Every structure is written in C-alpha cells, then in structure tokens.
C-alpha cells in the first residue's frame, strides 16, 4: 500500500512537471506549478482506481494529461492550440485501432461530438451574431469523441455546459467578476466533463435508463 502510494505521488509529480512544460510552451505564460501537479496527481489516483496498473490505464492517463494541458492553456489564453487537439484525436484513434480493435465506434463518437458542437457553433453565430464558443472547442469535442465513443460523447457534450455553469458560479463565489458579455474559456469544462464521463458515465446512463425508460 505504501509503495503504491509513493509510486502514484512520484508519477503525479513527474506527469505534472511535463504538463507544466507543455502548458508554458503552448501558452507562453506561467502555469501555477503546484496546482498543475496537484491535478496531475489526482488524475493518476483516479486512473489507478479505475484501471489499475495496466497498458490501458497508461493510455487513459496520457490522454487525461493531454486534456489537462489543453484545458489549462485555454484557461490562460482563451484559445485552444490545434496541434494539441489533433494529437489527442490521433492518440485516441491509434488506441482504439490497436488495443481495442473498435475504431468504428471512435469515428462515430468523433463525428457526433464534432457535429453536435459545430451545429451549436453555427446556430449561435446565425441567431446571436456571435460565437457561443470558439471553433477550437468544436475540434476538441471531435477529438474526445473518438476517445469516448458514441454514448459517452453525448453525455460529455451536455455535461460540459453544466460543468461550465458550476465553474462560473465558483469563480463568482470567489469574487471574480464575470459579465454577461465576457469571454470565458469553455475548454476546461469539456475536459472535466470527459473525465467525469469516463469515470462515472456508464453508471449514470444505466441509472437513467432504469429510472426513466423502463
């Protein structure tokens, strides 16, 4: 138990250090090292709890660290670097192709995520004459759709808006002023919704089906 705890702490610090370097490279801003390492360690713990020490667990951890970088850069700069999104999508596709053997499910999830957010993006631009979120968020949802597959992509898509509302509420509670017309990073909400969907999505969906459909 002690060895596992020490191993997770060391892996969290190591992963967090790499994430800090990537965040600083893509954002050209300081990345609050302690906060990044804490989140990185939390992701390591969640990954171990969900998958144990396995090759699949390592795959998920790498993807989650990528989400940490993407979300943090978006929070700092209000923009998503296209390269990071493409890298996540490629990582997810290769995993599904070589380890799971079900790349079709990933492609469907990618199309659903991209299509759903593209529809919201274009619809908001047509009705309100402005973007509901940036096109980088559309690309991000397409990439995480490959990772999640069809069902969990739908869940994460809707969940991301609730996560964003909670995030705004927390920031207001802490005293940060956020106006109605102020631009807010949506990428962190997507990234958090993805991890929540992976950890608890199947349980939530099963509960919903049993409670409301049968």
Automatic annotation (TrEMBL):
Record keywords, A-Z: Hydrolase, Membrane, Methyltransferase, Transferase, Transmembrane, Transmembrane helix
Single Gene Ontology MF annotation: aspartic-type endopeptidase activity
Transmembrane in keyword set: yes
Transmembrane segments: 7-26, 32-49, 56-73, 79-99, 106-124, 144-168, 189-209
EC nos: 2.1.1.-, 3.4.23.43
Keyword Transmembrane helix included in the entry's annotation: yes
GO biological process, one term: methylation
Residue span(s) of domain Prepilin type IV endopeptidase peptidase: 62-166
Family, as annotated: Belongs to the peptidase A24 family.
Protein name, as recorded: Leader peptidase (Prepilin peptidase)/N-methyltransferase
